[in-house]
Amino acid sequence: MTRPRPLARAGTASRAIALLLLAGALLAQDEGGGPGAALPSAESARAKGIESLADVLPHVDAADPGLRVAARRLARTLIADFHAAALPEGMRLVPGRLHLTPGGARCDGGFFLGEREVTRGAFRAFAAERGWKRESWDEGSDDLPATDVSLFEARAFAAAAGARLPTRDELLYAATGGGRNRYPWGDESDPSRANTREAGRGGLLAAGALPAGASPHGVLDLVGNAAEWTETPVGRDYVFVAGGSYRSAQRPVAADTFCTYRLAPEARLPDVGFRLARALPPLPDGVRLGDAPDAAPPAPPEPEPEKPPPGTPLQAPPADGGS
Are residues 121 and 238 in the same domain? Predict the structure, then answer.
């Protein structure tokens, strides 16, 4: 025979369930309408739903797994919906890890990440606006990844787009679906899903040409095709290049294999490109962004474009045909 819960606990659970249902209803109706009524302000409804978490979570009993799961699912849905409403064009939402506490909710990490690597066509247009010329940039079709680009040039493109370059850990987190997978698409190696050495293609494919290799968040080419610049330094003189290229072997995504090598920031290689990242917008009161666990790094603030040290060859725009 199941023992009845004490009335105090039953009351707490009932109140929490009611508040959860109320928060969820905000996604389907406005303040004065019935279920299914049109929302006059979806943004306002999302904000109210998230703020209601501050009321819900103190009443979520840790001894009631079902209730806690319900609270977590609702919180994740509300937060993801809030961020998805601000999703920049051409990017995907990589959500952070949600933590429920008696004082509210904390969402660690999370960021927007480019669905595809920056294309050659987009970088050509950017370089032309600035009068930058380089023979290799004029080669190949517009839909190929932009390669033969230094870290400084990639940063300048990102800054002009109101974005930044991702960190190594952000790319690693996105490529594993938050640590769930060995590869972006699952746990088994598959040369048909990524442009790596095993596929034998011998060169770059159009950015995003292999949709079957998408990560759980819909990000393409996180393994293979073009390796990617990151903002993660290695000592004073190098940064990590992540993901590997069409020249790389396909290996399980892990910290010691995903970042295939270090590179000097002024280097330009025919199989190294980049993609963009952006920080998430701030959440309403009651839910805060906190320090991220190791597996879900926080998105750093948008950096100012870094210029090369005075006196280096890269301080001026690249000369035609220069290296």
Answer: yes
